Amino acid sequence: MKSTITKNTLDAKITEFISLWQQGIDAWIRAGEILVEMVENDPHTYDYIIQKCPLMNAGILGRFEQIGRKILHPQLLLTASPGFAKLKRLPISLQERYLDEPIPIVVQTDDGTDVLLVQAKNMTKDQADQVFTSGRVRTEGEQKAWLMDMRSKMAKPCNKVDRVWTVKGNKAIINGVEFTRKEIVGILSAMD
């Protein structure tokens, strides 16, 4: 289907869209700042807001309070990527830095390791687990150690075999269900 919109009109619409998106982010920041001001003056502020706007809940208000207290960058609420989920736990200065700046990720190669630069919003769950740790980004050396640790955990043989049955007195217990000898014989004879 051919577009009926001109390139100039499309460019103008894109510019308007981006401007409105930024205004929305700025509005969330201002709303958060106002919420913090109200909460600091009255601890029942959440209750009052929820009463006036039942679509709100304490979880949403908590996020706005985090934004207002400069603990959470609002853009991190717009994407459900594993990298952004981990980035939310970092200090605001690192959140702002890594919103767009790629993060070095150590990867295994046939010749050892290499480093890729990946944006947090594009990380897989495994990459995010490798890169982020409590309140910070792992160094390349720490990532190598983390990879080695994961590899050694996966290489360990599992010697323990969990049985799903036990015998207690004159009954067999299979997955938590008790059977008598007669019931087990009946089950086995039905298998013929």
Structural account:
It is a single chain. By secondary structure, this protein is of the alpha+beta class. Among the domains are: 7-72, no CATH class; 97-155, no CATH class. Helix content is 52%, strand content 16%. It has helices spanning 7-41, 45-52, 58-68, 82-87, 92-98, 125-131, 140-155, 181-190, and strands at 103-109, 112-118, 132-133, 136-137, 165-168, 171-174, 177-180. The strands form 3 sheets. The chain has a 3-stranded antiparallel beta sheet with strand order 5-6-7. A two-stranded antiparallel ribbon has the order 1-2. Strand 6 (171-174) and strand 7 (177-180) form a beta hairpin. Helix 1 packs across helix 3 (58-68). The longest helix has 35 residues, at 7-41.
Can you tag this structure with a few keywords?
alpha+beta; 16% strand; two-stranded antiparallel sheet; 192 residues; extended; single chain
Give the spatial strand order of the biggest sheet. Answer: 5-6-7
Summarize the biggest pleated sheet.
Answer: 3 strands, antiparallel
What share of residues are in beta strands? 15-25%
Q: Percent of residues in helical segments?
A: 40-55%
Short account of what is shown:
This protein is an alpha+beta fold and 192 residues long.
Secondary-structure map with pairings?
Blueprint: H1 7-41, H2 45-52, H3 58-68, H4 82-87, H5 92-98, E1 103-109, E2 112-118, H6 125-131, E3 132-133, E4 136-137, H7 140-155, E5 165-168, E6 171-174, E7 177-180, H8 181-190
Antiparallel strand pairs: 1-2, 3-4, 5-6, 6-7
Helix pairs in contact: 1-3
